[in-house]
Amino acid sequence: MFTPRLLVRLGSALLLTVSARGLHAQGPPPRDSLARDSTGARLTLDSIAVRLERAEAALALLRQQLATESSTQVRLRSRVQLELSARLIVNGWRTTGVASNSEVPTFAAVARPADPQYGSTGVHTLGLSMRQSVVGASVSVDSVLGGVLFADLELDFFARALDPNPPLFPEPRLRTARAMLVWPRTEVMVGMETPLISDLTPITAAGVAIPTFTAAGNLWNWLPQVRVTRELWRRRAGTPVSIALQGAIMSPFSADRHVTDPAGPDAGQLSGRPALESRARLRWGIDEEVAGLQSVLSHGGEVGVGTHRGWLRAVGDTNLTSWAASADARVALGHGVEVRGEAYRGRLLRGLGGGAIGQNFGVLGNNVDKPGVPLTDAAGWVQLNVQWHPRVIAGVGCGTDRVLGASADRRRNSVCAVQAMWRPAQPLLLSFELRDLKTRYAAGLQHARHLNIGFGIEL
Q1: Signal peptide position in this chain (predicted)?
Q2: Does domain 72-458 have CATH number 2.40.160.10?
């Protein structure tokens, strides 16, 4: 069997043979040219030997790359290539002040008063955790109904995320799962994904299980849905520009129950209607898909506006309407600098992931067990990211959520964070994040700080 190395050597030998025959066919050269010819022949042989060594080194590197690539793939029974990925990370954290979650805080909480006899729990917490490790898998298949099929899923180990006493042994949790059929101008997606009106997420290694700026402008709940994207116009000459419309039918989820059945179905399911979302987007400088959400966009960008409408039955015999209007942007500024962010205004949005600082209803007088007025909020976040070296990403951002009306318990939440990720050598990852949280309650302002340092590997 002819290997690439054997072919290179045979070609070199053939070249030398032809060169030698050409020299003999010209007859005896003059005496004064013999020295020059012998020197040139030695130089030619040396040059060919160097080129042969370079070709062999390139082939060895190619074999190594192919072996590395094949090691991350598994061939399924259907002969489809399955690609596996993982980020195994240990997060060490310290939280100062009382927070909603000491491991991944989203807002500052009210401290319990000290007991005269037994004291208090204090305001400092510290711990180590691997619950934000992520495992994923993806496949792609050509020529499925005239398009390309993409499918992927991602899991972390943050089950029982809101449990104040998380398990010592982390339990897996399904984050996202998608199956997408993509044609030249149309895309259909079925699975679990973030809300269509809030598809962006900040770059971070410390806010993976509960995304950074949750309850401060970032709606993130992974909800079952069917999503359709249709490209209306595209300019291919020069800088690519496209305009598309998107629509989604989502599982109704409100994170509340009917007041008469606290252990019953979700109030969104009781409405008997799905949630509906739409979005119009403008994309430029990008041929197909925007770069990964955890990487800095090198060129181009995308802006969009969206709407949300849903229903829930939490009190009485009629449905309440949930609504939102949103805007989002992700733009490359050049030289490894990118800005991204989202903003919205809406009503009854707790079920989308942190809307109104995790509240749907205000407090009804002194009766905290009964829902009060449905809450409307205005929120948004922005993050500036810089990648001055392929192995280093740093960013700074802030988010805020302001609840309108005087009946809310939590009225305003502001979160700022600075983060950095360094990959000194594959597959190592080092991360750092410092987060500052300020939450205004009806009774006053609460403050907390969170430091997170991570060490892990990416496969």
Answers
A1: 1-25
A2: yes
